[in-house]
Amino acid sequence: MKKTNQIINSILITFIVFFTCCTPDRKEYVEVGPLRDKHIKIKDMFGINGFEWDFYDLQYNFDTTKYNLITNFNGFRHFLDWERIEPEKDVFRFNHKPEGGWSYDEIYQKCFKDSMLVVVDLQVTPSWLINTYPEHRRQRDLMPIKFGDKRDAPLSYIEIGKAGFQFAARYGQNKKINKNLIKVPKESHEPIIGLGYIKYIESSNEPDKWWKGKDCEQSPEEYAAQLSAFYDGHKGKLGKGVGVKTADSTMNVVMGGLAKPNVEFVERMVEWCKKNRGYKKNGEVDLCFDVINYHMYSNDYTGWFARFKSKKRGVAPETNEMTKIAKSFTDLSSKLGNMPVWSTETGYDISEKSVQRAIPIGSKSNLITQCRLVAPFRFIVCQIRN
């Protein structure tokens, strides 16, 4: 603690000296608003992204050494490819151990036991949906609808809504689900429900992926239609067995992290909800998500003057617009009943071709720079105030 205070004091003194030297003949006072008192613990601000194989060795044995590294963080965001739990339409499986493979039951149970928060990101359109597209238009990141379906209609997203139901039925807390709705053939004799391991599920990753083309990029209205099906089967209108909340009303639906952290995307989703989902009895908009989510990679090609001086590389977070962006989302949150705001991806590359790369500085390698840029203290200063 003493060492930390010394660091903070030295930073404060540096700024005081700098401003004193620059303005010797006049005094200026800047009013600083109060901190947003959310009682957020520092340890709850750090998580890691990964896949199921990060928990296993090459023989599909649970790897305790790997797991111990993961538990240095307080949260794990699991990239779960949809096809891994639904390899065929309406045929689900969650435990691949008997055939030699990973077990989601095992991963989530261990994380739950050790009080690690797990956010499951159900992503990547399965091949049985991709194959409805003409062959020349098939690709991994297609939006999750059949070819030709209306892009802004919740009904078009019924398949991912059904997948959300099956996942929530198994890993949510509700033990009173009609077991006839469970579509796990290998467990048909005794369907597993209500394990209670997972509290957060995310629908797709970076739905605004403009770089992948129009078959993959969704507008805010199109993505809101997807979330409405995923959230509660579009208020129950898509039938039984559709929607996360239909299976477990306590499970939280996280919107897919935006690649471009533009608050207008979420604002337009809210407007879609007003028009298509209406209002609750208490007057609040009937939203189809419980957590706002965006990605923020600190680099020098964002902001107005990037066109003049960008070198297309990562930069220190305090030199970017990270704080301004965070505030735009928390300002919207306050209008939505203080909805939680998450930033689920950030970091730096070391590849020379990456626009997010860390560079060598002096005698320090790019790996050292990477560590210094991503140092928790720097990100806390830029984000925790908001």
Describe this structure in words.
The chain is built from twelve helices and seven strands. It is α/β, with parallel strands linked by helices and 386 residues long. The protein has a five-stranded parallel sheet with strand order 1-2-3-4-5. The longest helix has 21 residues, at 2-22. Residues 1-30 and 304-309 have low confidence and may be disordered.
Provide a brief overview of the structure:
With 386 residues, this protein is an alpha/beta fold. The protein is built from twelve helices and seven strands. The strands form two sheets. A five-stranded parallel sheet has the order 1-2-3-4-5.
Q: Secondary-structure element order, as H and E? A: HEHEHEHHEHHEHEHHEHH
Tally of helical runs? 12
* Unreliable segments of 5+ consecutive residues: 1-30, 304-309
Beta-strand portion reads: 5-15%
What is the general shape?
globular
Mean pLDDT, to the nearest integer, reads 85
Q: For the largest beta sheet, what order do the strands appear in spatially? A: 1-2-3-4-5
Q: Number of DSSP strands?
A: 7
C-alpha-based Rg, rounded: 23 Å
Biggest sheet features = 5 strands, parallel
Helical fraction: 25-40%
Structural class: alpha/beta
Distance between the termini: 23 Å
Give descriptors for this structure.
two-stranded parallel sheet; globular; single chain; 7 strands; alpha/beta; five-stranded parallel beta sheet; 386 residues; disordered N terminus
